[in-house]
Design goal:
mainly alpha, binds protoporphyrin IX containing FE, 10 helices
């Protein structure tokens, strides 16, 4: 009888310690909940695009439509880049591992808005004139930097599928995807240069601080542990 009581006490203790070790609350979202979060985030990330379509259809772009749409798409490219870069630090600080499943989608949205921003420059600003484009990239440093930032995003978007991760292998894939750090720094430089002419650094300073903190955290972790938190998959 005494033995039985002891056995049941030790079973209860083992269960309690297992429960204590299991992640709780937001750290342990079920796959269904993660899918729901992904859908909501997808809709939210698409809103700026829908807003642009709506403003276009109702002729609300203002006096300079090209400037309005270029600025809007440029800003959203940067916002999506910052959100993508925020995933790893957030995941590490909170222990919410499911956050990694949002990263690929955010990165692809950054590319989506970046592509619109770039296509506007190609088609509307430069009128598909290749010579004019080359001259612009060559002559205007802020365009040179923006152009480089976008070009670096192309291999990241192209290798964002699970198949490409398998083909490249985790290590090579990870090394390639570190290009996103260069993209973020160049994007800030592009924005900064653009605003330098008007001596208006208010907003760009905020983005620069965010990028500095997000990259700084990685450097800090890397310096302390010898490596950045290990995130091998592209996130489903
Ligand atoms: C990662 C890539 C890029 C990011 C994050 C980015 C971001 C931005 C941002 C935030 C602005 C300023 C928005 C504002 O004034 O409120 C801007 C402006 C601009 N960007 Fe980019 N950009 C990128 C790539 C490019 C590329 C590839 C081009 C063309 C080759 C380009 C051309 C321009 C132009 C022409 C403007 C000035 C718009 C105006 O004021 O009329 N950008 N960009």
């Amino acid at each position: 009888m005494r033995g039985e009581r002891m056995a049941s006490t030790s079973n209860a203790a083992a269960t309690a310690s297992r429960v204590a070790r299991q992640p709780a609350g937001l750290a342990a979202l079920s796959p269904q909940r993660v899918r729901a979060v992904k859908i909501v985030l997808w809709l939210l990330a698409l809103l700026p695009f829908i807003r642009l379509l709506y403003l276009g259809a109702t002729e609300q772009y203002g006096a300079n439509p090209l400037e309005f749409v270029t600025r809007s798409t440029g800003t959203w490219t940067l916002v999506m880049l910052c959100l993508t870069l925020a995933i790893t630090p957030l995941r590490r600080l909170t222990g919410w591992n499911w956050l990694i499943r949002l990263r690929r989608m955010l990165g692809l949205f950054a590319f989506f808005y970046g592509l619109q921003h770039f296509l506007l420059w190609i088609g509307v600003d430069r009128g598909f004139d290749l010579a004019y484009m080359i001259k612009d990239v060559y002559k205007r440093p802020f365009i040179t930097v923006g152009f480089t930032a976008f070009v670096l995003m192309v291999p990241l978007a192209l290798t964002s599928t699970n198949g490409m991760v398998r083909r490249l292998g985790g290590k090579r894939w990870q090394a390639l995807h570190r290009l996103v750090y260069a993209t973020a720094v160049l994007a800030i430089l592009h924005y900064w240069w653009h605003k330098a002419g008007k001596n208006d650094f208010g907003e760009v300073s905020i983005y620069a601080t965010v990028v500095f903190v997000l990259l700084g955290m990685r450097v800090w972790w890397w310096a302390r542990k010898g490596r950045v938190p290990d995130v091998r998959q592209p996130a489903a």
